[in-house]
Amino acid sequence: MASIMDIGILDYFVPVFVFLLIFGIIFALLEKVSIFGKNKGLNALIAFAIAFLFILTPDLLGIVKIMTPWFTILFVFVIMIVLLFMFVGVKESVITEAITDKGAWIIIVICVIILIYAMTQVYGSQIQNINTDGNLTESGTSVTSQIGKVIFHPRVLGMFLLLLIAAQAIRTIAAHTK
C-alpha cells in the first residue's frame, strides 16, 4: 500500500541528482580556478563530461550516494554551530578566524573520513576477495584477502582514526608553543 512517506521512487532519480551535483561542483571549481580561462562553454563541457562519467560508473555513483547525506549533515551541523555562536553574541570576524585557523583542518579530516568510509563501503568487498594473482576469488582465503580483512576491520580503522586525531592534536599544540 502506498503512503506519503514512501520515497522509494526517488531511487530512480539518483543518477539525475548525482549528475547535477557533480556538474555543479566541477563547473563551479573550473570557474573559480580558471584552469581553462574564462570560457564558460569549455568549462561547462568539461563539467558535463566528468558528470556523465560519474553516472556511467556504478562504483562512483555508489560513492557519491553514500557521501552526499554525510556531507549534508556536516554542512547543516557547521551552519548550526556558526548560528549558535552568532546567537550568543560572538562576532563574525572571530568565527571566521576560528574556522580558517583550526576549523578548516577539522573539516578536512572529517571529509577524508567520510571519503574513506564511502570507499570502504563500495570497494571493501572487492578488496577482501583479491588473491595474490590479482584475481577475484569466491572463498576469500588468500593472503591478500586476509590482509584486506585486517586493514578494513572496524578496530583497525578506529585505531587509525585515533592516531589521526592524536597527530592533529600534537600538530596544533606544537604550533601554539612556538
Q: Can you describe what's shown?
A:
This protein is mostly helical. The protein has two domains: 7-56; 68-176, no CATH class. Helix content is 76%, strand content 0%. The protein is built from six helices and no strands. α1 (14-33) runs antiparallel to α2 and α4 runs antiparallel to α6. The chain is globular and about 50 Å long.
Enumerate the spans where pLDDT stays under 50 for 5 or more consecutive residues: none
The count of domains is 2
Structural class computed from helices and strand pairing: mainly alpha
Would you list the SSEs in sequence order as H and E? Answer: HHHHHH
Taken as a percent bin, the fraction of beta residues is under 5%
> What is the makeup of the main sheet?
none
Helix content: over 70%
Structural Rg: 21 Å
Give the end-to-end Cα distance, rounded to a whole number of Å: 66 Å
What is the strand tally?
Answer: 0
The backbone outline, from C-alpha atoms, is globular
Number of helices: 6
- Determine the mean pLDDT: 82
Helix and strand arrangement:
Blueprint: H1 14-33, H2 40-56, H3 58-87, H4 92-128, H5 143-151, H6 154-176
Helix pairs in contact: 1-2, 3-4, 4-6
Q: Keywords, please?
A:
single chain, 178 residues, mainly alpha, 2 domains, 6 helices, globular
Give a short summary of the structure.
The protein has 178 residues and is mainly α. It folds into 2 domains: 7-56; 68-176, no CATH class.
